[in-house]
Amino acid sequence: MLTGTMLNLEAGFDTRDSPAQARTARGEFESDLIRALAVKPHAISPKYFYDAQGSRLFDSICELPEYYPTRTELSILSTHAGEIARQMGPRAEIVEFGAGSLRKVRLLLDAMQEPARYLPIDISGEHLVDAAAALKVDYPSLDVRPVVADYTQRLLLPAPGAGCRVGFFPGSTIGNFTPEEALHFLRNAAQVLRGGALLLGADLIKDPAVLHAAYNDAQGVTAAFNLNLLARANRELHADFELGRFAHSAFYNAPLQRIEMHLVSRRRQQVAVGGERFELAEGESIHTENSHKFTIDSLRALAQRAGFTAGPVWTDPNQLFSVHWLHAPR
Ligand code: AVI
């Protein structure tokens, strides 16, 4: 099934999330949380972190001294923007998977030769409108086409223009997918980017102490971000989680090359969601996120399985983070 709605900002379409969409999203959150609590080991998708409060907390994480990925990727992009823009060529267009903070795409747009079009894809219409409108102010001649869609599903995009179509997936969000989901995402991206390329940010395997600090910051912002999942369930689903009864836990699972985040029950307790009650033992955890880490070769091997051909890769002097240019199949 093809999904994806094309919305033209200039045409003045309304991209606000409708009450019906909000109800569907709540229903999905409720059924996924109930399933997570009913089945052991308990696990839920990290996509539920990102309500308005969760998105604000994530923005704060990006500013933390311990959380190196954001500032390292920004410095890689700004150092190598010229070279990246040369790969793109004139009149290229950027398809961004997720409407991020825009700081990163601005670095690219500023270096590009006559950027033709920017197509941010995000499931949240509201987020998209804000992002697109902000960009339009500074790049009045850029054709900004927000696309309200779930970029993990097959996408329907406008036909590419005359220049190179470049997908942009920064932040190492690819690491939050399971390996199967990552492959699925890359295969879909290869389809919509045919003949173009993907610019992909991927966090690198490093000293576990550095990883541990990044996900266990001294100010407790990451803990608040993790616990917000339960606070959100209380707000939206009228669940009765007592946040003080759960502890944030994040550690590096070396064999699986990933940070795992969990919410650990501090005591034996009962919780209610959607009229159902669940028992949690002391020490029992709800697994809330994986953040996979890569080597340059492991990321390239994954992309190759999806049909991409590895191009240049840019890193920082400490090899903390990597930005990959991947040629999409013809
Ligand atoms: C969005 N994503 C790449 C972040 C990460 O590092 O995996 C989410 C995050 N979780 C805790 N801190 C940041």
Fold and architecture overview:
The structure is a single chain. The chain is 38% helix and 24% strand. It is of the alpha/beta class and 330 residues long. The longest helix is centred in the first third of the chain and has 21 residues, at 68-88. The chain binds N,N-dimethyl-L-histidine (AVI). N,N-dimethyl-L-histidine is lined by residues 61, 69, 171-173, 175-176, 215, 222, 289, 291.
Query: How much helix, percentage-wise, in residues?
Result: 25-40%
**DSSP E strands, number:** 15
Order of helices and strands: EHEHHEHEHEEEHEHHEEEEEHEE
Strand content: 15-25%
Q: Taking all residues together, what is the mean pLDDT?
A: 93
- In DSSP terms (H or I, runs of 4 or more residues), the helix count works out at 9
Low-confidence stretches: 1-16
N-C termini distance:
22 Å
Described by strand count, sense and barrel closure, the largest sheet is:
9 strands, mixed
Question: Secondary-structure map with pairings?
Answer:
Elements: E1 5-6, H1 19-38, E2 42-43, H2 52-63, H3 68-88, E3 93-97, H4 103-111, E4 117-122, H5 125-138, E5 143-144, E6 147-148, E7 165-169, H6 179-192, E8 197-203, H7 208-215, H8 221-237, E9 246-253, E10 258-265, E11 269-273, E12 276-280, E13 285-292, H9 296-305, E14 309-315, E15 321-327
Parallel strand pairs: 2-13, 3-4, 3-7, 4-5, 4-6, 7-8
Antiparallel strand pairs: 1-6, 8-15, 9-10, 10-13, 11-12, 14-15
Helix pairs in contact: 2-8, 3-4
The structure holds N,N-dimethyl-L-histidine (AVI).
